[in-house]
Amino acid sequence: MTTIKDFYGQYNLIENPFASFTTENESQRFDKTFVKPNDYETILENFSQTNSIILSGDRGTGKTALIKDFINKVDAENTVLVHIIDFSPLKSDYNLNDLYKFLISNLSVSLFSNLAERKTRISNLNREEKLLLCYLLKNFVPQISKGILREKIENIQISWLQRNYKKFENIFRGVFNYGATAGGVFIDEYIAKHFTGLPPLSDSVQIKNFFPELPTSNIEEEFINQETSYQLLLRIAKLSKKLSFNRVLIVFDRADEDSRFMNDAELISDFIVKILTDNKLFLEEDLQVVFSTWSTPFNFIKDQVRTQKHYCPTLSWSNEDLKKALNQRLLAYSDGIVSDYKTLFEDSITELEIENVFEIANNNPRDLWHIFNNLFKVQFESDSNSTKIESESIPKALVKFVTTFNYYEYYPKKSNSRANTMDIYSYTKHLLKLDTEIFTKNQLNEKAQTGGSTINYVIGMERIGLIGLDSQQGGIAQYRIKDSKVIFALKNGLEINKT
C-alpha cells in the first residue's frame, strides 16, 4: 500500500509542499521559499532609507513573510529592533499614553537585550543617561522579560568563560557559581551588575530626574502624562543612538490576529486607528515605524490615515508572480529536482485547465497552496500509484477547495453576530442566486429576495471587499463579485456553507 509520503516521492518531492500555509510554520525553509512580491524593490528601498511604512494586504498575501525578510536584512550590531506581535498588554480601549508606555516597555526590553552582548558601550554615557537606563530597567522591563534577560546574560557569561577557560581557570568556578545562584539575588540587581558602570538600582531614580519641568516634586510613576511618556520614548531613541545603535526600528505585525477581536474588522480597526493616525510617531526622525495590517480593517479607517504623507504600499500578486512563487516552493521541497509546476501534470492537460487553477487562486499565494494541497489529495484518492496529476482531478479539487474553504479566514465577522446576520456566508448565499457575477441592486433583489435590505447588503459586501463597482450604465450601478472562489461556485451551481 502506497503511503502519502511515498506518493509525494513519486513526484520527486521530499514531503508535501502545501501542508503549511503560514510563514511562522516554515521558518526552516524560509530562505528557500521566499519570493519577492510586486513592488518589492520599492518597499525595500523605503525600508532601507528608514522611512516609516504602513503595509497592507489581504490575508495570505505574504505580509509577515515580507516583514521577516526585511528584519533578516537588519544590521543587528547597529539596530535596536522592536518586533511587536503580542498586543495583549495593551488594553483594547487604550489611549496614546498607554501606547507610549507600551512602546517604552518593548523598546527597553530590546535595548537591554542588545546591550547584554555589548555592555562596554555603556561607557559612552554620562551619569544621568546611566540613571535613565536604571530607571527603565526598574520600571519598564516586565518581570518575565527580566528572567529571559538574565538567562541571556548567564549564557553570555558561560560562553565567554568556556572560550577562555584555560586563561581564567582559577576564577571560573567562582563566577559560574555566581551565575548559578543568581536566582537567590534580586534579579534587577543581578542584571544591573552585568551592565558595568550602571549605578546601583537602590539609588532613588524617578521620572522627575529626567523631566524637572514636571509640576510636582512627588509625582507618582503611574501618573506620567501623555506628553511626558512620548518625550521619554524619544529620549530612549536618542539614548540608543548614543549607545551606537544608529537605527531604532519598531515593527507592528499581526494585530488583527489578537484573539480579543474574534476576527471582527470593526474592532480591529478601532484598535489600530490610534496608532496609524499618530502622525508625529510615524514622522519622528529618531524612530522608524513599520505597521503591517490586514487590508479590510485598514480600509475601514483609511480616510483617517495620512496615506499621501506616509508610504502605504499594498501587497499584490499577479498570476506570473504566483507561478514564480510556486516553482520556488517546489524547488525547496524537492531538493532542486522539480523546477516547473507544469511537470506535475499529465501532458494531456491543457493550458486553459491550468490557468483556471491560478484564476481561482484569486491572486493569493495561500489560496494557491490550498488548491494544490487539494489537487494532491484528490489525485492520491484516485490513484495512489500515479506520478502525474490527471485532468479529472482538477475540477474535483477546485470544488473541494471552494466548498470547504473557511471564508472567515479572509472575511470579517461581527464578534456578537447571530447565525442569520450579514456576514460572508449570508452574503454568498444571496450572490449564488444570481445569473452572472455582474449584477445590479434590482437584480440582487429580484433573484435573492433581499427586499428593503438590498442596499444594506450591497454596502456590506462592498465594505468587506466581496464585491466592487464595475460600471455605470444609464445611471444604474453595476457590481461585480471580486472573489474568484464565489464566481466559480456561481458558475458551477455550488453551495458555500459554514463547515
From TrEMBL:
Pfam families assigned to the protein according to its UniProt record, in alphabetical order: KAP_NTPase
KAP NTPase domain boundaries: 47-125
InterPro entries from the UniProt entry: KAP_P-loop, P-loop_NTPase, Sll1717-like
Name the record gives this protein: KAP NTPase domain-containing protein
Natural source organism: Flavobacterium restrictum
